[in-house]
Design the sequence.
């Protein structure tokens, strides 16, 4: 018996067909006792577009990967 996992956006209830169209929205509170909140979303969701337009891209951390 085979199983097929279907990922769905938490915001728009759209199906996410592959990893290239998925986004993880992470809320990290300044008060560490509250922990993290993680939500899966589709790239085309309106909320994701609003967050991307307001936020700024963070530089990659750690050692550069070997070429």
Sequence:
């Amino acid at each position: 018996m085979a199983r097929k996992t279907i990922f769905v956006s938490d915001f728009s209830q759209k199906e996410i067909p592959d990893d290239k169209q998925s986004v993880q929205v992470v809320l990290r509170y300044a008060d560490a006792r509250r922990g993290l909140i993680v939500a899966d979303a589709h790239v085309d969701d309106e909320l994701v577009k609003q967050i991307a337009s307001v936020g700024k891209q963070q530089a990659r951390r750690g050692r550069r990967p070997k070429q």
About this structure: The two ends are 41 Å apart (CA to CA). The chain has a mean pLDDT of 90. The longest strand covers residues 22-28. DSSP finds one helix and four strands in the chain.
